[in-house]
Amino acid sequence: MAMNLPSQRGRGRRAPMADINVTPMVDVMLVLLIIFMVTAPLLTAGVPVNLPDSRAKPLDQDQKPVQISIDAAGKLFVDKEAVNEALLPDILSQIAAKADPAKPPQVFLRADRKLDYGRVMRVMGELNRAGLNRVALVTVGQDGK
């Protein structure tokens, strides 16, 4: 039985290194990553093709988003039309029922900055209850746009 025991004669020798040096492997992986990043846009460019004419009706790909606004006085507007808050759940249910289940409508929620947070959250709760979960909060950018 051979064992690796330290001896008096071999004190100056170092033990063999048991770790794997991963630096070259990382270098190769980074080079491959760069190559794929450079070549990927070239693959998606596609081939120029002259497409045939068609009399088919174009698909409606862009749905008009539903806009819900709450002004400083707390009045609700759905697509610029004043709405009583008691009727909001019914209106939202109608909007959700008309929508394609595969692609629910986008809802833009605009609220005055001086409104109470709870007021906005009640409207968001009604949106959630109606199944309209694609809600975007509309804000003004720092440049005023």
Overall 3D form = elongated
Strands, total number: 5
Mean of pLDDT: 78
Write out the strand line-up for the largest beta sheet, numbering strands in chain order. 3-2-1-4-5
Distance between the termini: 81 Å
Explain what this protein looks like in three dimensions.
With 145 residues, this protein is α/β, with parallel strands linked by helices. The chain has a domain at 76-137: 2-Layer Sandwich (Nucleotidyltransferase, domain 5), CATH 3.30.420. It contains three helices and five strands, in the order αβββαβαβ. Strands 3-2-1-4-5 form a five-stranded mixed beta sheet, covered by helices on one side. The protein is elongated and about 90 Å long.
Q: Concise description?
A:
The chain is of the alpha/beta class and about 140 residues long.
Which key phrases capture this entry?
single chain; 145 residues; alpha/beta; Nucleotidyltransferase, domain 5; five-stranded mixed sheet; 5 strands; 32% helix
Topology of this protein?
Blueprint: H1 23-44, E1 66-70, E2 76-78, E3 81-83, H2 88-98, E4 107-111, H3 117-130, E5 135-137
Subcellular location: Cell membrane
Family: Belongs to the ExbD/TolR family.
Keywords: Cell cycle, Cell division, Cell inner membrane, Cell membrane, Membrane, Protein transport, Transmembrane, Transmembrane helix, Transport
